[in-house]
Fold this sequence. Notes:
Chain A has about 400 residues and is an all-alpha fold. Helix content of chain A is about 75%, strand content about 0%. Chain B has helices spanning about 10-45, 50, 60-75, 80-100, 105-120, 130-145, 150-160, 165-195, 200-210, 215-230, 235-240, 245-255, 260-270, 275-285, 285-305, 305-310, 320-330, 335-355, 355-370.
Amino acid sequence: MNVVDAGATAHRGVASVPKGKRKRLLRGALLAYAFILPSFVVLLAFRLYPVARAAYISLHKWGIKKDFFVGLKNYLTLFTDPRFYKSFNVTVFYVIVTVPITMALSLLVAYLLFQKIRYRPVFRTLYFIPYITSLVPAAIVWGWIFNYEAGILNHALHWLSDGLATILLTAGVRPWVYVWMAIGAIWLIYVVVTYKRRGGIANGVLVLLSGGLLALGLFLNLRPEIIEPVANQLATFFPVKWLQEPRGIIQYLGKRLAFDPPKWLWGPSMALVAVSIVSIWHFLGYDVVVYLAGLGNIPPSLYEVARIDGASEGQAFWYITLPLLTPTTFFLLIISTVGAFRAFTLFYVMTGGGPLKTTTSVAYFIFDRFWNAARVGYASAAAFVLFGIILIMTMVQQKAMGKRVTYQ
Amino acid sequence: MTVTTKHSPLALRVSLALKRTLLYVILTLGAFLVTFPFLWMILTSFKGYAEAIASPPTLWPQAWIARFRILGILIDQHPGVLVAFAVWLSADIVITWRLIRGRMSKALYFIIHLALFFVLGNIGPSGSSWNLSYLWQTATTRAGAEMEPFFANYVEAWGYAPFAHYFRNSIVMATVTCSLIIVTGVPAAYAFARMHFPGKDLIFLAFLATMMIPREVLTIPNYVTVAQLGWIDTFLALIVPWIVSVMTIFFLRQFFMSVPDDLYDAAFLDGCGHIRFLWYIALPLAAPALVSTTLFNFLGSWNALLWPLLVTNTPKMRPIMVGMAYFANEFGMEVQLHNAAATFTALPIIILFLLIQRQFIEGIARTGIK
C-alpha cells in the first residue's frame, strides 16, 4: 500500500500552518468530502449496511417477512443439511474440473499464439469471442448442442468413436497390422535417432507414444478377443444424456465398461461435466489474453541466452517460460477459483440445478432456498458461509497480489 | 540457428516446416471448435423445426439451399447478374484488403459493406432486369410461393416475447449504470488521488474492503431493502444498487496519481482550483481509462442475470438476459426459435466487441499483469 503512504507524507501537518492557509485546507477537505459523499452513501446503503442486515436476517426465521428470532439455529441446520454439503461438493467438483483445464488449455493456446505466426490477431479474436458472448444465449445454444437426440455433439462423438472402434477392429487384421506397426516402428526409429534435439521429458513422451502404437498393433493382432468388446462398447457409447444424466462420470463409464467403481470415485455427474465444458469454452479466451500479456513480459534475451547454451525448446519452456509465468498463473488461479465458486448463470439456464440436484452449486443452493423455498433467513446463513469461504480465498489473493496490484 | 549439430539443413528445414504446419493445424482446429457453437447457432436459426431436430443432422438449412438453386436459375436467365457480382466482389476485396492493411476503420468498412449491397441491389428502375432486388423477388415468388420468408424464425421468435422491451430495458439499465459509475467514481477517485483531508486512508480502506464482499451476501438484504422501498419492478431497483464501482474508483485513482505533479502545481499557481483542474485537465487526460472501464461496466451490467431476475416481475421490465432465459423456458422445444433469439441477443455485443476489441483486450491484459 505504498501509494496510500505517499499521499499521507505529502499531507503536511495542519496545525503548523498559518491561519489563512488553514482555512483553505479546511475548504479543500470539505470539497474532498463532497467528492466522496455520493459514492460513500451508495456504498453504505448497498454494500456495508446489507452485510449487517444479512447477519441480522440469518439469525431469524424469515419467510416472506420477518417471523421471529432463532439465534444460530439456521447455521446449525445448515451444517447438518446434506443438501448443503452436496452443493458444496458440486462446487468443489466444478472448480476442480474447470479451473485447471481452462488454465492448461489457455496456456497451450497462448504459447502457440506467441510463436512467430501469421494472423495472430485473427486467431486471438476467434479464441476471445466466446468470452465476449453473453452467458445466457451461449448456455441456451449449448443446451441444444448437448441435447440427447437432436444435439450435434452426440452425433459428432458417435461418428468419432464409431470410426475409432472400426480402426481398432481392423488394425489387428493381417494386411493392416503391418501398416500400423510400420508406422509405429518408423516413428520410434525417428524419435530415437533425433533424440538429441529434445529434452528428456519430450523424448520420454514420444518414445511412449510411438512404442505404444507399435505394441498396440501387436496386441490387436494377438489378442483380438480382448479388444472386441471394448471396441463394441466404444461404437455404441454415444449418445449420452448429458444434461439429464445424474450419474457420475466415472460411475457412468464404469457401468458401460462393466466394472463397479466405489462411491467416492464416482466423480462429477455428466450434467456437471457438460456445464463445465461450457464454462471452459467461455473463460478460455480470457485466460489466453492474460497469458499472452504474461508471455509478452518475459524478456526475449532470456530465450536468446538459453538458445546459445543449447537448450531445446521444451527446456526453455520448462525452465524459463513456466517459472516466469508463475505470477500470471497465480493471478488466474485465484480469479478463476473465486469466479467458479460464485458461478450461477450457467447452472440456472442449462440445468436449473438438476438432474437430482447434481448441478446445484452453493450459489444456486442459496438462490433456490431464497427464491423457490422462501427461506430467507436460512439462505442468508448459507450466503454467509459462502462469504467466509470466498473471503479466505480473496485474502490469500490480496496478500499475494497486494504488492503487485498497487505497484505503479 | 544453433539447435542441431548433426542434421543436414534439409532435415532441419523439413522438421521446422512440419512443426509450423502442426502449429497452424492445432490453432485452426482449436479456433474451429471454439467458434463452432456460433456457426451451429446461425445455421440452426435458419432451419425449420423438423430440419433442426433431424437425425442425422443436416449441415445447410433448406432455406439456404433453395435460395442458392434460385440464384443458379437467375444467373442462367440473366448472365448480366454475374457482372454485378464481379463488381461487388472486386469492391469487397479492395475494402477488405484496406481493412487488413489498417488503412480503413472498421466502422467505415461496415458501412461501405452495407452500402455496396444496397446500391448494387437497387441500380436501375424497379421492374427492369437491371434491378437485382426486383429480379430476385420475381425469381423467388416464381420458384415457390410457399417458401418461408428468409428470416421467418427471427420474426417468429421476436414476436413471441416483448424483445423490443427487453432490449430497451437493457440499454437503459446498462447505459445509466455505467454513466453513473463514472459520475460517482471520477470525483471520488480524484479526491483519493490528489486531495488531502483527514481520514483519507481510513475511508479508502473502507472502500477497498467492500470489494471483498461477494454479491451473494448482498443479494438477499438488498432485495429486502429494495422491496421495502417499493422499487421492485422499476429501473431504480435495477440501477441504483450498482452505481458505484470500487474497482473503477481504484483504477481511476491509479490513473489520476500518474498525472505529473508539475502539471498540477502549474495549474494551481495559475489559480486553478480542484474542480477546474479535474474538469479541464485530469478528465481529458483520463479519457482512454474512462472508455475502457466503461466498456467493462457496460458489459457487466448488460450480462447481469441474478439481480435483474429477482427485482423484475413483469415482462415489460425485464432486461434482455432475463427475458431470454424466460423465453427459453417457455418455448421448451422450439430449437430453431431458441437459436434465432440467441443470435439476435448475442450478436450486438459480439459486433460491438469486433469494432473496439483493442480496448477490451488491452484492458484485460492490464488487469493480469499489473
